[in-house]
Amino acid sequence: MSLLELHDVSVGFPIRSGVIIERTVGTVRAVDGVSLSVERGTTYGLVGESGCGKTTLGRAVLRLVDVTSGRVTFDGTDLDGLSTERMRRLRRRMQMVFQDPLGSLDPRQNVESLLTEGLEVHGIGTDRAQRRAVITETLERVGLSARALSRYPHEFSGGQRQRIGIARALVLEPDLIICDEPVSALDVSVQAQVLNLLAELQSDFGLTYLVIAHDLAVVRHVSDVIGVMYLGGLVEEAGSNELYTEPLHPYTRSLLSAVPVPDPQVEDSREQILLSGDLPSPADPPSGCRFHTRCPWRQPVRCDTERPPLREIAPGHRVACHYAEEIRAGTVQPRYGDRVPAPGDTP
Ligand SMILES: Nc1ncnc2c1ncn2[C@@H]1O[C@H](COP(=O)(O)OP(=O)(O)O)[C@@H](O)[C@H]1O
Ligand code: SF4
Ligand SMILES: [Mg+2]
Question: Can you give the pTM of this predicted structure?
Answer without folding.
Answer: 0.92
